[in-house]
Amino acid sequence: MYIGLDIGTSSVKAVLMDEGQAIIASRTAPLEVSRPHSGWSEQDAESWWTACAGTLDALAKAHPKEVAATKGIGLSGHMHGATLLDRSDRPLRPCILWNDVRSAAEAAALDRDPRFRSISGNIVFPGFTAPKLVWVAHHEPDTFAKVAMVLLPKDYVRLRLTGEHASEMSDSAGTSWLDVARRDWSDDLLAATNLSRGQMPKLYEGSEPTGRLRAELAQRWGMRSSPVVAGGGGDNAASACGVGVVRPGTAFVSLGTSGVLFVSNARFSPDPETAVHAFCHAVPNTWHQMGVILAAAGALEWLAGVFATDPAELTKPLEADHARPGGVIFLPYLGGERTPYNDAKIRASFSGMSHATDRNALTRAVLEGVAYAFADSLAALRKAGGEDVDIAIDFHGAISPALAKLLIKALEPYQPMFIEEPCQAQNHDIMAEIARGTHLPIATGERVFTKWGFREVLEKKAATILQPDLCHAGGITECRLIAGMAEAYYAAIAPHCPLGPIALAAGVQLAASIPNFLAQEQVTLGEGYLKKTFTVRKGYLDLPTGPGLGIELDEEALAGKIDHDWRNREEYDRDDGSVVDW
Questions:
Q1: Which residues are known catalytic residues?
Q2: CA dihedral defined by 183, 187, 192, 193, rounded to 10 degrees?
Q3: What are the DSSP E strand ranges found in 220-337?
Q4: What is the torsional sign of CA 530, 206, 382, 298?
Q5: Mean pLDDT for each 10-residue chunk of the chain (582 residues)?
Q6: What is the CA radius of gyration of the chain?
Q7: Could you say which of 96, 169, 274, 532 would form a disulfide bridge with 380 (CB–CB 3.0 to 4.6 Å)?
């Protein structure tokens, strides 16, 4: 069993899952944000710990047997927050959050120092951590003098869990203190803000253990032993791992309070002038680029608050009518903007309103404003990464169909490779409507488990790329049947390949035997599993021609990656209705 903790801006979420990544249970606890002045955004660090402890108490009470078997805990959280601790690890003041822009002047001053862009690879944004410490030094000098340790939000929770001062690369890259290429703190950048390496936590990769749960907490939650607490990741890097965006060229859209367009990279690719973030990924030897808009779902939530309703009610009247553009324009800059403008003072506005403007017109304008802000981010990412980079964008079925339609229309000019899961996969009629409205390929199938489900997708022309899961869609034999059916409808197949040597070998066999097989959804190309890894050319596996297609398992590497015998078939054939036939 494993537990994931996410420290969000509005809530803490705890998830309990088994080794097959099936969700056993989850719990959520709300958080409050304080805004004492315009442009300020703060949170009580102790409230994170209270919420985390409460969710784990609830999980342990409801599922004592499963929680007792916990082997590991992973952490994610909102980035950039400045949590200042004294020598006794007590918070000195409320945490200054990611969307706080009070330090705009300090950020601009640091950004004029050429070392920051050169070493960190990024503009020094007001929301980043370093300028907040300079603001504290200028406006709260007594507090600054007592700072013994600076932690990011999830790392304060880690401290309470393990007693360790630790962080990881993806989150730390957003501080403006990290040498992102070298994946280490920069003494020069720390000195420029009158800080030192001694006030920073020890750095780990996201997949590395950073300590173990304190014995008294393991006892409190009934765990048989103290589980490992992994490095984890910043919220967006962790989300990328969750949806499989770890291979270079893959991307996803995240619509939270803010909006993120995230692209995984094989190398550090900074381009600060575009206001694109270039950070370490949460997996080793990988980086990512990120376009960030500060008000995405937050803009819709703001309008819902104005009309005293909820976002779902606002968008419901627009679901059936999306073809016509609205006559009202909304600029979604409620609290400044990052990509591509880097302007903390810019503010939102409506224009084009008339006597006929009603609630629906304003809602459509907000959705369109958010959609075209994402298009601005994608344009900046194209400029930073190059026009020849294939970007496949995963909506992950988490947004309303109305916004999905508008987003796809806005992103079309920038030619993403395909759009994955633009709405819940089970809603084939809406998926078909979305597919009819765009020339971009639509991909689906992560939650479709039989060839009959894929047949409905194809007959309704809901997708042109099918993504059966190698385990839950029936293994190689079933995937071959699905691929043959897809070919009859001029569709491609891009199976989800679970991380593991047997699934990898199955995926490679499929690639060799299916002409319409795409490699874009291969989670791994064999790193750490095969003695010779595979390469991808224009979306397809570049297969070797030797005996066995070059599949030679690296047993020594496998021994360190998998805590059971990978040759034991029973470890993979779980009694869940799957037909795993390899």
A1: 235
A2: 80
A3: 228-230, 233-234, 250-255, 259-265, 277-280, 287-293, 329-331
A4: positive
A5: 92 89 88 90 96 95 94 95 97 95 94 95 94 97 97 97 96 96 96 97 94 96 94 91 76 77 84 88 90 86 91 80 77 88 88 93 90 86 65 65 79 76 71 82 73 82 80 67 84 68 62 63 56 63 59 64 46 38 32
A6: 24
A7: 274
Both tokens of 544, joined, read: 């070797």
Q: At what angle do helices 451-459 and 475-488 cross, to 10 degrees?
A: 10
Residues 215 and 267 in one domain: no
Handedness of CA 553, 576, 452, 419 (dihedral sign): negative
Q: In terms of C-beta density within 10 A (0-12 exposed, 13-18 middle, 19 or more buried), how is residue 500 classed?
A: buried
Buried b (16+ CB within 10 A) or exposed e, 250-287: bbbbbbbbbbbbbbbbeebbbbbebbbbbbbbbbeebb
The pLDDT of residue 468: 78
Pairwise CA distance, residues 404 & 371, whole Å: 9
- For residue 181, give its domain range: 2-240
Last residue of a domain, one of 240, 264, 288: 240
Q: Is the peptide bond before 340 cis (omega within 30 degrees of 0)?
A: yes
Q: CA angle, 390 as apex, 376 and 117 as ends, to 5°?
A: 55
Beta strand spans in 8-138 (E): 11-17, 23-30, 42-43, 72-77, 83-85, 95-96
What's the sign of the alpha-carbon dihedral 516, 521, 526, 527?
positive
The candidate with the shortest Cα–Cα distance to 309, out of 255, 369, 362, is 362
Q: Per the domain annotation, does 400 fall within a domain?
A: no
| Residue 291, CA distances (Å) to 96, 274, 392 in order | 22, 9, 15
Among 188, 219, 240, identify where a domain stops: 240
Strands 83-85, 166-168: pairing kind: unpaired
With beta carbons less than 8 A apart as the criterion, state whether 395 and 421 touch.
yes
d(CA 545, CA 215): 54
Q: How many CB atoms lie within 10 A of CB 208?
A: 15
Helices (H) and strands (E) in the chain, counts: 20, 28
pLDDT score, position 567: 47
CATH number, domain at 102? 3.30.420.40
Number of structural domains, the chain? 3
> Do 525 and 499 reside in the same domain of the chain?
yes
Ramachandran region, residue 565 (left: φ > 0; alpha: ψ -120 to 50; beta: rest): beta
- Predicted confidence at residue 398, as pLDDT, reads 55
Going by C-alpha positions, the residue among 439, 410, 436, 405 that lies closest to residue 422 is: 405
Note whether 81 and 196 are same-domain residues. yes
| Residue keyed to tokens 């869990």 | 161
Residues 180 and 35 in one domain: yes
> What local confidence, expressed as pLDDT, does residue 484 receive?
83
Burial class (CB in 10 A: 0-12, 13-18, 19+), 526: buried
pTM: 0.74
Q: Same domain, yes or no, for 99 and 19?
A: yes
Beta bridge partner(s), residue 95: 43
The pLDDT value given to residue 194: 97
Strand 72-77 to strand 228-230: parallel, antiparallel, or no bridges (unpaired)?
Answer: parallel
The Cα–Cα gap between 514 and 493 comes to 9
* Side chain identity at residue 458, one-letter code: L
